[in-house]
Amino acid sequence: MNLTFYCSEQNDLYRLLVGQERHCPRFGEIGAALEHARPGSGVLLLADAYPKAELELEERYLRLIRDKRLRIYAEYPSSAPGLEISSPRQALWERGVVSSDRFAPGVEALSILALHGCWFLPVRNTGLTSHLVLTRVAGYDKAVFGLPREEAGETHPLLFELPGTTVLVGASKLSHFVTGRYGPMAAWQSVWRALLSWLDPESQVPPLQWKPDVSVRFGEQDALPPECESDALELSFRWFEQHVLFHTEKGNGAMEGYVSHIDHQGRQMRLVSSPRADCAAESAMVFAYDAVLNGNPASRKTAEQIMNYVWSAPAFLHDRKDSPAYGLVNWYDRGPIFYGDDNARVLLAGLAVSRLLGDDRWDDHLLRCLLANWRTSGSSGFRRNFLRYPESFPEGRGWRHYKSEDFINCAPHYQSYLWACYIWGYALTGYDPLLATAKQAIRSTMEAYPDGWKWTNGLTQEIARMLLPLSFLVHVEDTAEHRGWLERMSGELLRQMQPCGAIAEKIGPLENGKYPPPQSNEAYGTGEAALLQHDGDPVCDLLYTANFAFLGFHEAAAVHERLKTTEDRLADFLCRVQLRSEKHPYLHGAWMRSFDYRKWEYWGSSADLGWGAWCVESGWTNAWIAAVMAMRRTGQRLFDLSAKDRWKRRLPDMLEDMDLVQAL
């Protein structure tokens, strides 16, 4: 290729081309690079000091460029004749958008590109011809509402022509695509092939292939080795061991995970500021499985310490007996907000830890928490999404207020795992009201499907959440009706399952959505949101859907054998998309939230304010995927009755402790 470079040897683009055995003369001074370049050839002036802007595109260089008829790509210049360039800013919610047909047909106009956390130079946009812009837009692959107004300063030129010259200016370090983990990969390949073809029109630009710093273990068509799932589980065990733990006064705790935001160096930060009870308990479950499967005493100790932390007051346990919130578990450390679905996963994971370790020390906490949630559920079996203490309990309002209210909320995301706990609790204690509550709420929910359902980040996740309680229900009451409900929900998920095993997301009526896709550019990044913009966007959600579907299908296969094949397909997919990374070891062996099963990379609309497309949740996502793989390896299921005798003995005292003997 007839190209000359001004850059360091470590520049991503330069390294890529040299690695493909391309001759690329490289210089450490701009003048030397321009002098060396053959007349009519292309020169790339790249941003070595990024995120500092040090490249100065002086008039003398422009004269030389004109005299030699050079084509120039000038990256991240601090100054250039005729341009008003401001100080560098870092992108937060802005994304790259293709603003011309220069890259077609590979990348069409209004296509969205990610330049994670990039620094850019705001350039006064006065009649510039831009091919890429940086701006805040809604959309999955395309800016569905078009570009924001240029005159309001909301859209920044990212790649544009310097008027009257053969110079293309990049307002950020576009050549940082490997280190910065830019995406989607195929789109950036097309962008750079087009740029290199313009710089060197007489040469055949080779296909640009690079190994991402963070990728997945296997391609969609790769043959999987027999030990693939066992290896995936071991990688997950080590990820939890090396990258999830933090130290507390009482030993080990487990953090929530890693934020979705990726900085300009491709790094993600740990979420450690407000440890959560659900993520901690779910992480303890993973350590308990490691202790059992690998005979790891350190993991056993860690699981014990984390569970003790979860059941400690005031960190998580609300232990004031005179309080209507008695027995409930805080959302986060010293945060007295009680989500039913989060309490449910503490219960599910806690029961698993207790069984795996053969340890009954948490039985009273588990049973009390179960009853505390049940007694704050309404007469129809539904519970408020969350209760706050003391705000939800003003003077004179106790738990009986919530137990007696006629409250209906057909939202499985918030409700269904508590029903699973009630059914499991009934099987362990024989306490009939638990089963009656679950059955009543499940019946109402199934009768309301689909138009009467409230959905959170998408409708598919709500369906996935129903598998667990329905599987438990068939186990305790195997009736034609209960099997029919399970078959209906599993059938709905099967219709969303792709040949690769991914489960496609879909949304319901927008008026039923709590966190729908953003309905304007301005709404992008202002709240929680779905990963897709429209049905048909090829995204699988591993935070809200695939993980819980994996658990649900595993439990459903125990009572409906034909679903075992579906469970296996999902396991195959999860093994393939597990992360691998040498450069970012804190991601190696984990799963992120948003996977595009057509691009075969982690990608999505990252509009969610807290848990975007690239977030890594220790609980929710990683813990349940690992736990189900561990259950598959041992031939076990979550629903287990080994504590039945203990719980039956404890029930009378616990009913009295919770003021439930004569209360109802």
Descriptive overview:
This protein has 664 residues and is an alpha+beta fold. It has 2 domains: 3-199, 3-Layer(aba) Sandwich (Rossmann fold); 216-657, Glycosyltransferase (Alpha/alpha barrel), CATH 1.50.10.10. The chain has 18 helices and 25 strands. Strand 15 (245-248) and strand 16 form a beta hairpin.
SS class: alpha+beta
**Rg calculated over all Cα atoms:** 28 Å
| Estimated share of beta-strand residues | 5-15%
Instruction: Kindly report how far apart the N and C termini lie.
Output: 82 Å
Which terms would index this structure?
664 residues, alpha+beta, Rossmann fold, Glycosyltransferase, 2 domains, 3-stranded antiparallel sheet, 12% strand
How would you summarize what this structure contains?
The chain has 664 residues and is α+β, with helices and mostly antiparallel strands. The protein contains 18 helices and 25 strands. Strands 2-1-3-5-13-12-11-8-9 form a 9-stranded mixed sheet.
